Amino acid sequence: MQIHLYLPMGDQTDSELIREVYARFGLAYYQSECLHRGLCMVYAISGLPPPDLITRPRVEERLALAYSLTLGDVAAKLANLLPHELNIETQKAVEMRNFLAHEFWFERAPLMFDADKIPHLIAELDEYAETFVRLDAQVSDWSVPRMRELGITDDLTQDYQRRLLAGEAEEPLPDRQTVRELEKKLGKRQRLIRVWRLALKDHGRSLIFEFSDGSLWQLSDVGLGWTRYKEIGPKWTEIDELKPHLPAYIIPRPKSSAPWDYELMLANGVVLWVKPGRRKRSFTWSLRIPS
């Protein structure tokens, strides 16, 4: 249903005040989106392992998951992570943003017929904007130690913003639909048919797991995870020692007591185990074959 609001414009001063209401509403809603993005970042990094055990695809997966959440969703997921007072303020901010998005114009529109009440609307919107800005700053300050732990410095953030403003290309994160499909597949047993090895530019190697539906995945700190590879490359090689134990129905995200420390059950009772490597940002794997 569309509601068309026809306002008596009166003199120019009234017209300018009305335009100012729309401008302040836009600013308040923009600041709520800034808070939303900030909370998403906090949620994304909260699920990452120590810096030496992080992979870029895993970071991208966490960010994509976080950005697919609404403000209310991400606030709920952070409820047990944020300090008590900060959590309460965040819940209040969700209510404010929901009021702006769904109720503000229905409840406040009649006030715009009265020029004397328009300044009160502007003041109310300013209060919302200031609340979102203040809370965004508090969340940012609280997350600084974790950011530093992960190596996310002010210089890195400023460099990213510079490249973004300069229009330098950044590969897009998975969209919301892709994230939903990812969670659905990783949340239930899947039929693994092949495992591929490919060489990386830094002279390292990576394993890519192929499900029966053709989707590709790679190892992460919590099991199989997101990869940017969409199809099998011409120089990829299938891992021979795994062939006799495939296909197999596996749990993509097995129980794990620590990052990069888990097992994938293959066919014939064979186990593919994964552990952190001796070098930083590396992992090792092997097979355990029953006697």
- Measured between the Cα atoms of the first and last residue, the distance is 70 Å
Low-confidence stretches: 1-12
State the oligomer: single chain
In total, the number of strands is 9
- Proportion in helices: 40-55%
Give the number of domains: 2
**Rg, Cα atoms, Å:** 25 Å
Described by strand count, sense and barrel closure, the largest sheet is: 6 strands, antiparallel
What is the count of DSSP helices, taking H or I runs of 4+ residues?
Answer: 8
Mean pLDDT: 87
Q: Give the overall shape, derived from the CA principal axes.
A: elongated
Structural class by helix and strand composition: alpha+beta
The ordered H/E elements are HHHHHHHHEEEEEEEEE
In percent terms, what proportion of residues is strand? 15-25%
What does this structure look like?
By secondary structure, the protein is of the alpha+beta class. The protein folds into two domains: 12-165, no CATH class; 182-288, no CATH class. It is 46% helix and 16% strand. The protein contains eight helices and nine strands. Strands 1, 2, 3, 4, 5 and 6 form a six-stranded antiparallel β-sheet that branches. A three-stranded antiparallel β-sheet has the order 7-8-9, with no helix packed on it. The chain is elongated and about 85 Å long.
What attributes does this structure have?
291 residues, six-stranded antiparallel sheet, single chain, alpha+beta
Task: Summarize the entry for a quick read.
With 291 residues, this protein is α+β, with helices and mostly antiparallel strands. It folds into two domains: 12-165, no CATH class; 182-288, no CATH class. The chain is built from eight helices and nine strands.
